[in-house]
Amino acid sequence: MLQPFRRGISGGDFRQRALTKLMFVDSLLGRPLLQSLHIKVGDKAELSKAFTQNDVVTFSDLTGDTNPLHLNEDFAKKSRFGRTIVHGVLINGLISAVLGTKMPGQGCVFLSQEIRFPAPLYTGEEVTAAAEVTRLKGSIAHISVSCKVKASEKTVMEGMVKVMVSGS
């Protein structure tokens, strides 16, 4: 595999050497380097949902997160929230849904995230998950994300994510 690369950079004109190098790097990564992305800076998408207590219980069963703050109304009444709240990671799942189904869409890979939860989300509150492309660097999209309660505009999650975008 190294032989074509070495041959490409040891002789011939610059374009041939660059193309050979590009093909070598491309084969190492297993994906095209020169690709046309189907998204651009400023693209936006959103998705809305109201989580039910059944959704919270199902999530708890699937993950093993049985924190009574999410499941036990009596316990939650004594907390600073006054009632049960939706798991933060469940809220964050809406961001994954926006990214994987709407924008950038199928084939994108979640690489990293930095998020915070400034306020609680209560069951029954309709929340809108929003995403906006702020930067593109190669096949990596930097996306600003947030989840806000529709009725009050209360922000329950916000942050930045990076995803690898597949070419069109």
Overview of this structure, please?
The chain has 168 residues and is of the alpha+beta class. It has 6 helices and 5 strands; from the N terminus they run ααβααααββββ. The two termini are 27 Å apart. Residues 1-28 and 31-36 have low confidence and may be disordered.
Set down the secondary structure blueprint.
Blueprint: H1 2-10, H2 14-29, E1 44-50, H3 53-63, H4 68-71, H5 73-77, H6 88-101, E2 109-116, E3 126-137, E4 140-149, E5 155-164
Antiparallel strand pairs: 1-3, 2-5, 3-4, 4-5
Structural descriptors:
single chain, 168 residues, alpha+beta, five-stranded antiparallel sheet, 35% helix, 28% strand, elongated
Helical amount among residues, as a percent range?
A: 25-40%
> What structural class is derived from the secondary structure elements?
alpha+beta
Most strands sheet: 5 strands, antiparallel
Order of helices and strands: HHEHHHHEEEE
- Averaged pLDDT: 81
Radius of gyration: 22 Å
The count of DSSP E runs of length 2 or more, i.e. the number of strands, is 5
Strand order within the widest beta sheet: 1-3-4-5-2
User: Low-confidence stretches at least 5 residues in length (pLDDT < 50)?
Assistant: 1-28, 31-36
DSSP strand content: 25-35%
Distance between the termini: 27 Å
Shape: elongated
Q: How many helices does DSSP assign?
A: 6
